[in-house]
């Protein structure tokens, strides 16, 4: 499975960004897709995930502000990020799980200025 992430950038606090993650290759039976984020010196943390049936999970810090969605037909996932805060600044990594194996996309930088 190859994952291509896009959509990061620089935005002011309170603004919005939408991240996209497109899977290719052996995409059959991808169960989970989602996003982690990481800042220098800290561990990578789960931001949001969505399983193939549509059940979602969010980090407490983003609940009510971020929405994850998935297009199973196109093997893509999206992260709509609203009301962004400076503490959301990080490199965001999309991931996918297929047969209990986790695959990673390249990171995309999200920078929120105050």
Q: Could you give the order of the helices and strands? A: EEEEEEEEEEE
Q: Runs with pLDDT <50, length 5+?
A: none
Number of helices: 0
For the largest beta-sheet, the strand count, sense and barrel status come to: 7 strands, mixed
The total count of strands amounts to 11
Class from helix and strand fractions: mainly beta
Distance between the termini: 37 Å
Query: Roughly what is the average pLDDT, rounded to an integer?
Result: 96
Helicity range: under 10%
Radius of gyration: 13 Å
What is the percentage of strand-forming residues?
over 45%
Gross morphology is: globular
Write the layout of secondary structure elements.
Layout (H helix, E strand, L loop, with lengths): L1 E5 L2 E4 L4 E8 L5 E9 L6 E7 L4 E3 L7 E6 L4 E6 L8 E9 L2 E4 L3 E6 L1
Parallel strand pairs: 2-11
Antiparallel strand pairs: 1-3, 3-8, 4-5, 4-9, 5-6, 7-8, 9-10, 9-11
Task: Explain the overall architecture.
This protein is mostly beta strands and 114 residues long. Helices cover 0% and strands 59% of the residues. The protein is built from no helices and eleven strands. The chain has strands at residues 2-6, 9-12, 17-24, 30-38, 45-51, 56-58, 66-71, 76-81, 90-98, 101-104, 108-113. The strands form two sheets. Strands 2, 4, 5, 6, 9, 10 and 11 form a seven-stranded mixed β-sheet that branches. A four-stranded antiparallel β-sheet has the order 1-3-8-7, with no helix packed on it. The mean pLDDT is 96.
């Amino acid at each position: 499975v190859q994952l291509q992430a896009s959509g990061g950038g620089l935005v002011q606090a309170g603004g919005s960004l939408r991240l996209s993650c497109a899977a290719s290759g052996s995409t059959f039976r991808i169960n989970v897709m989602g996003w982690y984020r990481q800042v220098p010196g800290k561990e990578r943390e789960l931001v949001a995930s969505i399983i193939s049936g549509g059940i979602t999970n969010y980090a407490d810090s983003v609940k009510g502000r971020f929405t994850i969605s998935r297009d199973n037909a196109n093997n893509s996932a999206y992260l709509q990020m609203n009301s962004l805060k400076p503490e959301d600044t990080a490199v965001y990594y999309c991931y996918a799980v297929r047969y209990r194996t986790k695959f990673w996309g390249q990171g995309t930088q999200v920078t929120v200025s105050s």
